[in-house]
Specification:
Blueprint lengths: L1 E5 L7 H18 L6 E2 L2 E2 L2 H6 L2 E6 L5 E9 L5 H4 L16 E9 L8 H17 L3 E7 L2 H8 L4 E8 L2 E9 L2 H10 L5
Parallel strand pairs: 6-7
Antiparallel strand pairs: 1-4, 2-3, 4-5, 5-6, 7-9, 8-9
Helix pairs in contact: 4-6
Length: about 190
């Protein structure tokens, strides 16, 4: 099941939101050792609390978290502008009414989970963006994630690269289009 809601709507999606922020704490803090603030086994930051982002969450049939992302309009505060800029000193400020920032991509795959969870997330992201007039999303990802994105049909356009904690990171943009959405759906054998 796919849930789409904003921070201000989180209480209507309480279980989904709580599962997501707990998954983020586990993945980002425990597994990846990122410098994120975790309280009560939950990873929630000021971008969640202050800027009312949009969340897309894919759940397993039992209601547990499978994968999720957070979206913010680039016309307001973004992590790229306020946090990641220090890793990319020569990066242009990427913003516009047609551009959203995607952050906090979180996957909690279990043995036996279908790969289609990622496809469902990316197809829903495409649908939402196209309906909202968004034709570009931007995000920062670790270089090994590039292969996963390419296999998914995303084909990110690298803007610049850097390192975080000795690991290569990439700032990229992603084109949102009907053909791209259908390609992603086809790769995951989903109806778009």
């Amino acid at each position: 099941m796919i849930k789409v809601f904003t921070f201000s709507e989180r209480m209507k999606n309480y279980r989904t939101y709580e599962n997501m922020v707990r998954a983020r704490a586990d993945v980002f803090h425990t597994r990846m050792n990122w410098d994120v603030k975790v309280e009560h086994e939950r990873e929630e930051d000021e971008y969640d609390r202050q800027y009312n982002p949009l969340y897309i969450v894919v759940e397993r049939p039992d209601g547990s978290h499978a994968t999720s992302i957070r979206l913010l309009p680039t016309t307001g505060p973004t992590m790229l502008r306020n946090v990641f800029y220090r890793f990319f000193p020569n990066c242009p400020d990427i913003y516009g009414a047609n551009i959203w920032e995607v952050t906090r991509y979180c996957a909690t795959y279990r043995k036996g989970d279908p790969a289609s969870y990622t496809g469902e997330l990316f197809v829903k992201l495409s649908e939402i963006c196209l309906d909202a007039g968004i034709d570009i999303v931007t995000g920062v990802f670790f270089k090994p994630m590039y292969r996963i994105l390419m296999r998914s049909g995303w084909d990110p356009i690298p803007v610049t690269t850097s390192e975080w904690d000795g690991k290569p990171i990439v700032l990229g943009t992603f084109e949102m289009s009907e053909p791209r959405m259908h390609d992603i759906a086809h790769r995951y054998a989903l109806a778009a």
